[in-house]
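Input record (one chain):
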Amino acid sequence: MTNKHYQAAIAAFDQANSQDPNKEIADGREYPKELLYAQRMSDMQERYVPDASEAVKLAVRAQHIQRWKIPRSKFPMDKEGYLQWRTGLYKFHAETAGRIMQDAGYDEVMIDRVKKIVSKKGLKVNPETQLMEDVVDLVFIEHYLVGFVAQHPEYDEAKWIPIIRKTWQKMSAHAHEFALAGKIKLPEALVPLILKAVQ
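The corresponding structure, as predicted from the sequence alone:
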C-alpha cells in the first residue's frame, strides 16, 4: 500500500475522533478527548517502537475511535456489564477502523490485520496485538493513572497495588524495561506505589 492510503486513513481517524463532544485540557489547550488520546498513542508508539509495522501504527491511532458513541452507562453497572461494554467496544472500534480503511483504499488483508489488533485478538501470541497493548498501558501510566487515582480517593494502597499489577502483567518484558528505564514520565506522586506494585 502506498503512503497515500496511510495518510488518508490517519486523517480520517482523526476527523472521526475530532467529533468527540468530551473535552480534555493538555498543555493549556482544549482537545476532543479521543483525538488527544489517539495522538498520545501514536506519540508513545513512535517513542517505544518507531519501526512498528503499518498495521500497528494504524491500529494504535484507531484504538479508541469514537469511543463516546458506546457509553459505559448503557450497560449494567456490574462486572458482567463492564465486560459486555468492553467486548462491544472492541467490535465497534474494529468495525469503524475497518470501514475508514476501506474508504482510504486499503485491501481486505490489511483491514483484517488491523481489526485483529484493535479488537485485541491474540494478546500474548500475536506480536502486533501485544505491541499495541504495550502502547495502551504505557500511555495509561504516563497520562491517565493520576486521574484514575484521583477518581478513587477511597482506595488505599492495598487496593491500588493489584490494580497497577494487573496493568503491568498485560505488558511485555520490553515494555517493562522501557517504563522503568525512565523512557516514560511516571507520575511523581505515584512512583513509590508503582515500584512497590511491580517488584
